[in-house]
């Protein structure tokens, strides 16, 4: 079957003052895949996520999403791209003065013709899909555990039935059981909804459990992409250490134990 590049980056340059974070970076993300982005601290994983999600403009290069040049999009096209994508930030980035349900309803307010009753019902559905109990809808973020806040952030990212979701370190700060449950949730949502998932992570267990493909950021670009098996054969020092180090071995043992 022909692969469709739902996201296509060419020649991306990201710069803050004199600091060049990305230089001539290319990447394709295939429709329906879970792509895990890894790299050393400060290699620009979050900046890349923000660039693709339209939250910052690259200094050079193009971002195509759904075949549209997002870097040249007019207001109408940008709104359409925003509707077809969802973003979940590390801490959930929820509004503290709103309940979980109200947070999930925020993106829906931009959609004409949704009555408050319908918004509420849709928000409850997303809350439930994200593995939260019904009762969580009436709670404020401060009343939730870190793991529940992440799920609430995911529910909000799913609010408009996106085709792509961006997840920034979804399992950071979760205990191993919570992290593993979140991995299962992401994989399940991707498979059931045909979602494309772009996730930034340091978590080797997440790479094993959820990702179809991995992209490694190093030397200001995407150094290599491929499956976990492909990564094991890469000779670059950082990539080798990351995928063969003691943590990698532990993650591999955990994965084999679960199969
Ligand atoms: N708004 C900003 N202003 C100035 N520099 C920034 C800004 N955002 C990011 N940077 C710089 O860009 C580089 C990449 O940051 P980014 O957060 O994308 O790294 P990362 O790979 O996600 O790191 P980590 O794994 O530690 O989260 C860093 O050197 C950071 O200081």
How does this structure look, described?
With 259 residues, the chain is an alpha/beta fold. Helix content is 38%, strand content 25%. The chain is built from 10 helices and 10 strands. It has a domain at 94-161. Helix 4 (116-129) packs across helix 5 (146-157) and helix 7 packs parallel to helix 10. It is globular. The site of adenosine-5'-triphosphate has 11 residues, from strand 2 and helix 1.
Gist?
The chain has 259 residues and is of the alpha/beta class.
Helix segment tally: 10
The overall average pLDDT, rounded, is 91
Number of strands: 10
Calculate Rg over CA atoms. 18 Å
Uncertain segments of ≥5 residues (pLDDT<50)? none
Structural class: alpha/beta
Strand content: 15-25%
GO molecular function: ATP binding
Pfam family, one: ABC_tran
Keywords: ATP-binding, Nucleotide-binding, Transport
Domain ABC transporter: 7-244
